[in-house]
Structures are given as structure tokens and as C-alpha cells.
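Duplicate of #3305? Posting structure anyway:
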């Protein structure tokens, strides 16, 4: 069993690594650490200035720009190695014996999808290096990643705290039912206090669906608290979590 942890050197990388160690311990899983370099190195491709500065001058300038691009690329590779080596050391210190280091240059979503095959869980920070300075914004790639992946995605905050309870937002539909089945069959959350809630006006159908979910969880050994909350899903779930 393997998990994929995506790190980029941002303030979230340490949290991703610590969560990866926790998940690895719960699942007895190997960890693959993935560091993705952008397709275009810092600064991107320089504009063609030959017409503005003359043919003779352009050759020397383009050589200089090429050397600068190569130097930036080497600096990115060095930083990537340092990020991966630091994360590997933390995982080994936490008792994770099987760690693999992966470096790729490419587009974030496509690269993560490329490596998700055979992984039990994919772990990523709530924000990345480019979003660190804009802390009010969630990474715009998160929804794209979540929708593209076939396997569970664990999105983590910038500080690690071992989960003591978890919440299932349950509506009786195929997606929440699949989540319920995963939680029951997988050891990741076993022994942790479970809360399961539905959002909407209380009715016999939603009540029966919730009771059935609670019964399945209790049969699997979970301690379960259930609730039906009125309101819109985003507001009701957020209020319940708080």
C-alpha cells in the first residue's frame, strides 16, 4: 500500500509531511514524496527582442538570457532536492521506513493524476507556494484536483494535529455512500470518534438514510453521533464543524 504526498517547499510542506507520517502509520503504507516543478521556470520564456535591438546585439543578449534560464533551472532543481531530502528525513525520523522521492516538471493537476495509480490516499496542502502570500485564497487548483482524482484526497492545513474526531456530511447519495463504505472498510479512521450529519428539513427519508448510516458505522465499531441540521450545506456543515 502506498500514499502520495505532494510538497512544494511552501509553509504547508511540513504539515503535508507530518500528515503523511500519520497516515502511513495508520495504514502501514509506504510514502511517495512528489515535488513538481512548473513547466516554465521562473520568468517564463523571454520575449524575442531581436527586432528592437538589432541582429548583432541580439545574439549576445539571447545567450545571456539562456544562461540565466539555465541558472534558474539549476536553482529550482537544487531547491527541489533540498525540499524532498528534508521531508524524507522527517518521515524516517517518524518511523516511516519506505520512502520514495519523485521530481517532475509539469502541470500540477495532470502530474498528480499521473502518479495517483496504486495510491491509497493523496495528500496536498490547502495552499501552495504561489498562494502563501495570498492567505485569504484557497488554491484554485484544489477543486480541479479533487474532481480529477479517482482516489481519496486529504487536504491539510498548515499545522498538523492528529485527528481525534471526524465528520461525514451524508445525504444518502452515491458519493456520500461511497465515502461511508470507504471509512468502514479502511483502517485510517478506526478508533476515532465519528460524527455523521445530514442537512435539510427533517423527513422520514432523510431520517431513515441517516439511521442506516449510523447502524453501519456502529456495526463496524465506531462511536457515532448523528444530527440533521437545517440550512444550506456550506453554512450548516461549517457551523457544525466549529
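Output from current build:
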Amino acid at each position: 500500500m502506498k500514499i502520495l504526498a505532494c510538497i512544494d517547499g511552501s509553509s504547508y510542506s511540513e504539515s503535508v509531511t507530518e500528515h503523511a507520517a500519520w497516515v502511513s502509520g495508520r495504514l502501514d503504507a509506504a510514502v511517495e514524496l512528489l515535488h513538481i516543478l512548473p513547466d516554465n521556470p521562473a520568468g517564463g520564456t523571454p520575449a524575442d527582442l531581436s527586432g528592437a535591438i538589432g541582429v548583432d546585439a541580439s545574439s549576445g543578449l539571447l545567450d545571456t538570457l539562456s544562461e540565466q534560464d539555465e541558472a534558474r533551472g539549476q536553482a529550482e532543481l537544487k531547491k527541489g532536492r533540498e525540499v524532498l531530502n528534508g521531508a524524507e528525513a522527517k518521515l524516517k525520523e517518524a518511523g516511516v521506513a519506505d520512502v520514495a522521492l519523485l521530481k517532475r516538471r509539469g502541470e500540477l493537476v495532470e502530474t498528480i493524476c499521473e502518479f495517483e495509480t496504486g495510491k491509497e490516499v493523496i495528500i496536498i496542502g490547502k495552499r501552495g507556494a504561489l498562494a502563501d502570500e495570498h492567505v485569504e485564497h484557497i488554491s484554485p487548483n484544489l477543486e480541479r484536483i479533487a474532481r480529477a482524482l479517482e482516489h481519496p484526497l486529504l487536504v491539510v492545513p498548515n499545522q498538523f494535529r492528529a485527528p481525534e474526531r471526524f465528520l461525514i456530511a451524508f445525504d444518502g447519495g452515491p458519493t456520500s455512500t461511497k465515502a461511508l463504505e470507504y471509512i468502514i472498510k479502511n483502517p485510517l479512521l478506526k478508533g476515532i470518534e465519528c460524527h455523521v450529519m445530514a442537512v435539510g428539513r427533517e423527513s422520514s427519508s432523510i431520517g431513515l438514510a441517516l439511521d442506516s448510516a449510523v447502524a453501519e458505522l456502529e456495526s463496524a465499531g465506531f462511536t457515532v453521533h448523528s444530527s440533521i441540521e437545517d440550512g444550506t450545506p456550506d453554512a450548516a456543515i461549517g457551523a457544525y464543524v466549529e
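Confirmed duplicate; merging threads. Helices lie at 13-27, 50-53, 55-93, 108-115, 141-148, 174-185, 204-219, 233-241. Residues 9 and 83 are 6 Å apart (CA to CA).
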